[in-house]
Write a structure and sequence with these properties.
There is one protein chain. With about 260 residues, the chain is mostly helical. It has three domains: about 15-70, no CATH class; about 85-180, no CATH class; about 185-255, no CATH class. Helices cover about 50% and strands about 5% of the residues. The strands form three sheets. Strands 1-4 form a two-stranded parallel ribbon. Strands 2-3 form a two-stranded antiparallel ribbon. Strands 5-6 form a two-stranded antiparallel ribbon. Strand 2 and strand 3 (about 65) form a beta hairpin. Helix 2 packs parallel to helix 5. This is Reverse transcriptase domain-containing protein. It comes from Acyrthosiphon pisum.
Length: about 260
């Protein structure tokens, strides 16, 4: 969070929970007043995260002003929706990345150096498609294809500019020539790197670390997987960020030897 960014949240199961959250808002507001500060209520938003159809539509207030309730909101560059479906976020970043890619290709139309073209693409375009990907990494094929479509657009233009021969609609030779990999493979590596940093202490996030379930066998077995991944009945639950990372680590034989 930024110094001027504050979030209050609570699991809401009854109106009493709504009142408790309102009391916490009042306490924070009073504390601000004693410091000579005040909330910008125009920037304050109320949002419920749930997959249920019916929610507690409580009107929260700050100093008598009702906080606007929203169905989606962008926070630190990631678009959150009420049901935590990140497709709107993926659509948004793909749209922005395509615009940036158009600018890059128009500007570098005369460039003939693959290294320069790759560097600019990775810095200005691919970075948009990978920011905070460990949070919203898609598990639906259509979303993953939407992201890859942006990179394929770049590969198509790069192949034309650099005279790289490739079969129709197959950009694997272009990937190899530029030293790139698919975005899906990069997201897998990002997931593995994140959980590795989490468990070796490079990333200080105790609230996330307690969600990691290490597998402690009761007897000697041939199984070498490091994590015990909870069972889920839905793909949504199966792809919770930490559970997804543990599953990917179990599927990668080289995870235990990662630096």
């Amino acid at each position: 969070m930024f110094a001027d960014d504050l979030k209050l949240f609570r699991k809401i199961e009854s109106e009493a929970d709504c009142l408790t959250l309102q009391n916490e808002l009042d306490s924070i507001s009073l504390w601000f007043s004693t410091l000579g500060l005040q909330f910008n209520t125009n920037k304050c938003k109320a949002m419920s995260f749930t997959r249920r159809r019916l929610v507690f539509d409580y009107s929260y207030t700050i100093n008598g002003s009702v906080i606007d309730r929203v169905a989606s909101n962008s926070d630190l560059g990631v678009l959150f929706t009420a049901d935590l479906n990140f497709r709107p976020h993926i659509d948004s970043i793909c749209c922005r990345a395509l615009k940036s890619l158009g600018f890059v290709m128009r500007t570098m139309n005369e460039f003939k150096l693959s290294g320069s073209l790759k560097t600019v693409y990775c810095s200005l375009v691919r970075s948009m498609l990978e920011y905070a990907s460990v949070l919203w990494d898609p598990f639906v094929v259509i979303d993953s294809c939407h992201l890859e479509r942006v990179q394929r657009r770049f590969l198509s233009s790069a192949a034309y500019m650099l005279k790289i021969v490739h079969p129709p609609h197959d950009y694997t030779p272009v990937l190899r020539a530029l030293g790139l990999t698919s975005l899906a493979d990069r997201r897998v590596k990002a997931n593995l790197a994140f959980i590795k940093k989490l468990i070796d202490g490079s990333l200080n996030a105790p609230s996330l670390l307690v969600q990691v379930n290490f597998k402690v066998p009761h007897r000697a077995t041939r199984s070498r997987v490091p994590f015990a991944v909870p069972l889920h009945c839905t793909n949504y639950g199966k792809n919770k960020p930490i559970d997804r990372m543990m599953r990917l680590a179990n599927e990668d034989p080289s995870f235990l030897s990662l630096p």
